Task: inverse folding
């Protein structure tokens, strides 16, 4: 028997539909719209401060680290008399 | 909603269009609430899980695949959220069913649907449905109430179509038995329901 012709399934299909709380539904809808709008705005206008935090700060820290390491190696070699 | 409109809606959702969200919300909000409230048997839980379902949609909107089918996607999220909720309660469904046997109607308290069911038949079907184990209840809700195709229901439940077919068959038989147990002949009830 297919589900379309099954009396049990048919009886289920005739059950009354549910009514969610209207005020809460509206709050949820507005909240989700706000989330979407924020994400859309963020995608359209990348945050310069965010770019600095994600890219520039690690790059500067890495550069300073490499410079420090180079100075240490240079001093060590000079102390050994290899330079 | 036809497939062409659905694909257009998905594309707009991926672009973060709030108007597209409103359209999806209008189509599915009531259906998802019905599914979750019958699944959880609690209105407050259903409202919470429904809110979380919508928040998941907007959080994942940009990562939706272009060919996403919104109905199955939303019902999958709702179903998984309910499963997580069930696990967090640390109360096995089997225990719930055992406990419910202590009440004459099979449920410790009337669900919102039972309370507002217009007829005796609807009330009895709601009560019988509420008394089923959650795994059976969810397939009957998806196929019988929401009208989803068994293949879609299988995808939502994370089982093969064959496994779903067997589960659906067992669920139908169990629901029919519970209707019998209610005190009236099942055939008479169903005849009345479909006339």
Result:
């Amino acid at each position: 028997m297919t589900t379309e012709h099954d009396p049990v399934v048919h009886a289920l299909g005739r059950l009354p539909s549910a009514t969610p709380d209207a005020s809460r539904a509206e709050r949820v809808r507005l909240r989700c719209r706000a989330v979407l709008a924020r994400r859309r705005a963020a995608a359209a206008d990348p945050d310069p401060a965010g770019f600095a935090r994600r890219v520039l700060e690690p790059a500067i820290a890495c550069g300073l680290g490499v410079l420090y390491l180079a100075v240490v190696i240079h001093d060590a070699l000079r102390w050994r008399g290899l330079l | 909603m036809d497939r062409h409109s659905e694909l257009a809606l998905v594309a707009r959702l991926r672009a973060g269009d709030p108007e597209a969200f409103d359209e999806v919300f209008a189509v599915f909000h009531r259906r998802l609430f019905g599914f979750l409230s019958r699944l959880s048997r609690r209105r407050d839980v259903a409202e919470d899980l429904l809110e979380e379902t919508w928040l998941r949609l907007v959080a994942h909107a940009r990562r939706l695949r272009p060919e996403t089918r919104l109905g199955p996607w939303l019902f999958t999220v709702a179903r998984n959220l309910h499963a997580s909720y069930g696990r967090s309660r640390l109360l096995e469904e089997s225990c719930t069913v055992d406990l419910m046997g202590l009440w004459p109607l099979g449920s410790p308290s009337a669900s919102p649907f039972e309370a507002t069911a217009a007829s005796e038949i609807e009330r009895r079907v709601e009560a019988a449905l509420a008394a089923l184990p959650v795994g059976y209840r969810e397939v009957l809700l998806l196929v019988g109430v929401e009208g989803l195709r068994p293949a879609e229901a299988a995808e939502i439940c994370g089982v093969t179509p064959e496994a779903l077919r067997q589960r659906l068959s067992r669920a139908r038989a169990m629901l029919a038995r519970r209707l019998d147990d209610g005190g009236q002949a099942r055939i008479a009830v169903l005849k009345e329901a479909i006339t």
Chain B is about 75% helix and 0% strand. Residues 99-108 of chain B have pLDDT under 50 and may be disordered. Residues 92-195 of chain B form a domain with the Arc Repressor Mutant, subunit A fold (CATH 1.10.10.10).
